[in-house]
């Protein structure tokens, strides 16, 4: 077979795969279009009231939350990344892994835990009053505020900045830092004059992920009484029963997300550095001794304790108090619901992710690949509360169009089938976390390349057979990685599940939120610990895969 004939045959075989990929990208785009169109819909009295008295406060509260958390996570994340990447000190390898563990604890669980611990009847104040006899000023323990929310978000979201900055420093900055050391520059000069300017693009990337997570949050802001866009959407939807105004709020929040995304891209585009050598050498770590070594150990231990050990220990203590009350048949049903909805969603999601990634790697036009990648990644940058509004609007529209079919199938007239089923929740999970699975699979394809698949095609294998016989065994590790990462995200997802779940369908995340809302913080410990356990396993597996790839 000639080269031209082989290319024509390949294009013909790709048509079905391309159709599935385009359909998946369109489904990811559809809820966003519904939301943005809400900006141009007719307004009602509720929206006029929100716009006149509340919208500015929502915007300012959300903005201060993002700016405060962003600044604090940059300070903590970059400092820790520089310590771990540039210096050698006792327990450095332990801390390098431990700084990732806070990602296993959802911020809303941390908010419930710290809020109860620091309350007047909490374990900390009770110990200080009864055991030490201290008279306490409540102002120093009031975490239920904007400052408290920034504290929680900083402790449990800084790993985004830490991971990206640490990877950049270890692999891309060695030549610049070594040259500065040879010129006699001290560590402070190197950090502020070289490391920070050099890492601006990496820092901006990590900070943008933090901003997206903050804007996506509902549990922390609702528990602390902060009027953010996400809490406003919930109150408008469930308090006023006004979906139209909730869609307009979601559209405003999505506009803010787009603005953050554009700014982050502009920062990355302008801040580019080229290495003075083509060789990529790892950064040589300097050994810390004396007072700097003890200072580094204390700082690292403080962060790890506050962001992981203290909340886990407190939750474990509470679990020993309430396990007889919580661990029952209803809890088994919670686990079954969580596992079943997660496995079904992830299976469909990974099938779509593998299909899209396989099409993109064969694409001869970079524009098509870029557009598909952007569309697939869009869902992860949209807050769960916003995406749920768009998904609900799409499902209601589909139900209206399929009304005659429902009547023919025997359903009552006007019955909302899709909008009241688990299908809607699964659909939302796929859109929200498709980017996570896609990125893992795409990394696997980039590592293996196309040479094996092209060899199979030259030997006469069809497109589909080549994928199952050659490609899939090669990227099996990447698919498993994507599966585990998506599983962790779905298990701890709160806003999306809370808004779109069918009546009486509870997961571990929604049950923990329900306990906390009912002031039963101790009872929330066991579902919270199960969520954290899933996160720890996922983080460990991700770290283990990264270590293997680095060797």
TrEMBL record:
Cellular component, GO annotation: plasma membrane
Coiled-coil region(s): none
InterPro entries per the record? MetI-like, MetI-like_sf
SUPFAM superfamilies linked to this entry: MetI-like (SSF161098)
Q: What topology does the record note for this protein and the membrane? A: Multi-pass membrane protein
| Keywords, alphabetical | Cell inner membrane, Cell membrane, Membrane, Transmembrane, Transmembrane helix, Transport
Database matches in CDD domains = TM_PBP2 (cd06261)
- Which residue windows are transmembrane per the record? 17-42, 62-87, 94-114, 149-169, 190-212, 246-267, 288-319, 339-360, 380-398, 418-441, 467-488, 524-545
Question: What biological-process GO terms show up in the record?
Answer: transmembrane transport
The subcellular location is: Cell inner membrane; Cell membrane
| Lineage top rank: taxon | Bacteria
> In which broad location class does this protein mainly occur, judging by the first location in its UniProt entry?
membrane
Annotated ABC transmembrane type-1 domain ranges read: 59-262, 335-542
Family designation: Belongs to the binding-protein-dependent transport system permease family.
Q: What is this protein called?
A: Iron ABC transporter permease
């Amino acid at each position: 077979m000639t080269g031209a004939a082989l290319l024509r045959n390949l294009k013909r075989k790709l048509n079905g795969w391309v159709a599935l990929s385009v359909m998946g990208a369109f489904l990811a785009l559809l809820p966003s279009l519904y939301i943005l169109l809400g900006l141009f819909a007719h307004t009602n009295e509720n929206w006029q009231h929100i716009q006149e008295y509340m919208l500015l406060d929502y915007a300012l509260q959300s903005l201060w939350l993002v700016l405060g958390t962003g600044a604090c996570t940059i300070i903590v994340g970059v400092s820790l990344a520089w310590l771990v990447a540039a210096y050698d000190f006792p327990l450095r390898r332990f801390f390098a892994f431990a700084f990732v563990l806070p990602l296993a604890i959802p911020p809303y669980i941390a908010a419930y835990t710290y809020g109860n611990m620091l309350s007047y009847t909490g374990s900390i104040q009770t110990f200080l009053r009864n055991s030490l006899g201290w008279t306490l000023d409540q102002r120093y323990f009031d975490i239920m505020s904007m400052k408290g929310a920034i504290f929680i978000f900083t402790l449990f979201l800084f790993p985004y900045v830490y991971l990206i900055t640490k990877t950049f420093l270890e692999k891309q900055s060695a030549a610049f830092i070594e040259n500065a050391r040879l010129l006699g520059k001290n560590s402070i000069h190197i950090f502020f004059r070289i490391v920070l300017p050099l890492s601006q693009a990496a820092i901006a990337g990590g900070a943008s992920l933090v901003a997206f997570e903050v804007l996506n949050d509902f549990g922390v802001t609702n528990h602390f009484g902060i009027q953010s866009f996400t809490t406003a959407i919930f109150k408008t939807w469930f308090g006023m029963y006004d979906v139209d105004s909730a869609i307009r709020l979601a559209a405003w929040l999505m506009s803010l997300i787009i603005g953050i995304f554009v700014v982050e891209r502009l920062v990355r585009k302008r801040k580019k550095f080229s290495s003075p050598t083509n060789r990529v050498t790892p950064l040589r770590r300097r050994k810390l001794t004396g007072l700097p070594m003890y200072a580094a150990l204390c700082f690292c231990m403080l962060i790890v304790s506050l962001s992981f050990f203290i909340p886990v220990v407190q939750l474990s203590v509470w679990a020993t108090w309430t396990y007889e009350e919580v661990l029952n048949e209803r809890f088994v049903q919670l686990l079954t619901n969580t596992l079943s909805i997660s496995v079904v969603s992830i299976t469909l999601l990974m099938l779509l992710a593998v299909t899209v990634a396989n099409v993109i790697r064969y694409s001869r036009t970079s524009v098509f690949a870029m557009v598909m990648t952007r569309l697939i990644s869009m869902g992860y940058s949209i807050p769960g509360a916003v995406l749920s509004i768009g998904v609900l609007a799409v499902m209601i529209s589909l139900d209206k169009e399929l009304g005659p079919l429902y009547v023919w199938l025997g359903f009552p007239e006007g019955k909302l089938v899709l909008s009241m089923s688990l299908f809607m929740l699964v659909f939302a999970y796929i859109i929200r976390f498709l980017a996570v699975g896609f990125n893992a699979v795409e990394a696997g394809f980039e590592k293996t390349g196309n040479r094996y698949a092209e060899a199979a095609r030259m030997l006469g294998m069809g497109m589909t057979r080549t994928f199952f016989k050659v490609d899939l065994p090669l990227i099996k590790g990447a698919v498993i990685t994507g599966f585990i990462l998506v599983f962790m995200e779905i298990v701890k997802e709160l806003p999306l599940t809370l808004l779109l779940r069918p009546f009486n369908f509870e997961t571990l995340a929604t049950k923990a939120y329900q306990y906390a809302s009912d002031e039963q913080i101790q009872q929330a410990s066991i579902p919270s610990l199960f969520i954290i356990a899933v996160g720890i396993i996922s983080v460990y597996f991700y770290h283990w895969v990264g270590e293997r790839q680095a060797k």
